[in-house]
Design brief:
Largest sheet: 7 strands, mixed
Bound molecules: pyridoxal-5'-phosphate
Low-confidence stretches: none
Number of helices: 13
Strand order of the largest sheet: 4-10-9-8-7-5-6
Helix content: 40-55%
Number of strands: 15
């Protein structure tokens, strides 16, 4: 292994491609080798510190001592599955269901968000006897065969499947009229359901990420999902709220993104931040849906809901509560949004700052039209200033700011200062 960092990185990249194959992508043209994390900070192999403004999985901060201790203690005691009785999984399920409310009575555990999507689709299809699913046009719901088929953002080679129809996602225009936007989506949903029925698939479910992350981040105005939710029910399908991105205090006002919209989903999927990096995800459902599903078939997921993952997940909720991270996401998120709006007024190349809690987006707009390339330059410029984030959206021109929930006001200032500098350096 070479001592020269650039040669070392090139060697690792070649080795990675040889061993892992080409399906894995990496961030940055010159990828980072991260070896340690603490709170909102990441450290590379040379000991250089970076501000993490991107990673939502370590929601209570990288290597949070309480989560690490809970994992270690449980791993030293027992790590087993859902075929034995255990109190901690019941205590955790109770807390989770209490926080969800909205008539969700049972929760089942999986190892990934993709498995949660897969299971939610199975439950919806079992209940309705139909297979058709409607999603937004750049949705992402996971990597199993069924989840990939409802994830058009994977590209035409993979999705959508034959029983999948797409509708245009909500517009990120912060001033959009929620009634009109909701009615537009409801009408598109009804048309999509009509097509699915005409082709004999029927309509099982509509599934949407409650913050439309891969569709370009669309938090506002809260409530625009209401007409769509009513149209789903009227059409005889189930509403699946995908909270893999929006859940666990991310959006600042509530533990769950769908609460902001005032809707009552039939099924809710969650994952990513749930175990602060441990592989735990879940599906919560109206009790009667799982009662009928469970009466007809068994479900055993070897690692889903294992003792160590439950211990991690319980510690995550403890930290969110004890460190006031919902209120922090709200307060720091508002500060950050105000600063982004201010940047937008001074820099021609950014527009439409938007966000809910600590999930924010801002469009990068290139005068020559290649906004994705410009967004990449912004992301690279930030990396040079030791701030990490990424771009998202159908055109990859939306800066995605989604840090651990322990992001402070000072962290927000550091991010905004770096972004201000980068935008100034890229102005034409
Ligand atoms: C909205 C959404 N749903 C589902 C998934 C799939 O989760 P996982 O990668 O844990 O399988 C993701 C992952 O990025 C996601 O963003």
């Amino acid at each position: 292994v070479s001592a020269d960092p650039a040669i070392r990185a090139a060697e690792m990249l070649a080795r990675r491609r040889r061993l892992l194959g080409p399906a894995y992508r990496h961030f940055y043209a010159e990828p980072l080798e991260i070896v340690r994390g603490e709170g909102v900070h990441l450290y590379d192999a040379d000991g250089t510190e970076y501000l993490d403004a991107y990673n939502n999985v370590p929601c209570v901060g990288h290597a949070h001592p309480r989560v690490v201790a809970a994992i270690a203690a449980q791993a030293g005691r027992l790590n087993t599955h859902t075929r034995y009785l255990a109190e901690p999984i019941l205590d955790y399920a109770e807390r989770l269901l209490d926080s969800l409310g909205a008539g969700l009575g049972h929760v089942m555990f999986t190892c990934s968000g993709s498995e949660a999507t897969d299971l939610a689709l199975r439950i919806a299809r079992f209940h309705t006897g139909a297979t058709g699913v409607v999603v937004t046009s750049n949705a992402y719901h996971g990597v199993t065969t069924a989840a990939a088929a409802v994830s058009p953002s994977l590209g035409a080679a993979v999705a959508p499947g034959p029983e999948v129809r797409t509708i245009v996602p909500p517009s990120p225009g912060a001033t959009a009229d929620p009634e009109r936007e909701g009615a537009r989506m409801a009408a598109e949903l009804e048309a999509a359901v009509g097509e699915l029925e005409a082709e004999g698939h029927g309509f099982a479910a509509f599934i949407a990420d409650s913050i439309f992350s891969s569709d370009g981040i669309v938090p506002d105005p809260a409530g625009f999902l209401r007409p769509l939710s009513a149209a789903v029910a009227d059409s005889g399908g189930l509403f699946i709220a995908d909270e893999v991105q929006a859940g666990f205090a991310r959006t600042g006002e509530s533990m769950w993104g769908f609460h902001r919209h005032g809707i009552q989903p039939d099924l809710v999927t969650m994952g990513k931040p749930m175990g602060n990096g441990m592989p735990i995800a879940a599906v919560a459902a109206r009790a009667e849906l799982l009662d009928e599903f469970g009466a007809a078939t068994r479900y055993f997921n070897t690692f889903g809901g294992n003792s160590v993952c439950i211990a991690a997940a319980a510690a995550v909720i403890d930290v969110i509560e004890d460190e006031g991270l919902l209120a922090n996401a709200d307060a720091v998120g508002r500060l950050l949004l105000d600063s982004l709006v201010e940047l937008e007024q001074r820099h021609e190349i950014v527009r439409r700052a938007r966000g809910a809690g600590l999930f924010l987006g801002i469009d990068v707009v290139a005068p020559d039209g290649d906004s994705a390339a410009l967004a990449d330059q912004v992301v690279d410029g930030l990396r040079e200033r030791r701030v990490l984030l990424a771009a998202t959206g159908p055109a990859k021109d939306v800066l995605k700011i989604r840090p651990p929930l322990v992001f402070s006001g000072a962290d927000s200032e550091r991010l905004v200062e770096a972004l201000d500098e980068v935008l100034a350096s890229l102005a034409t």
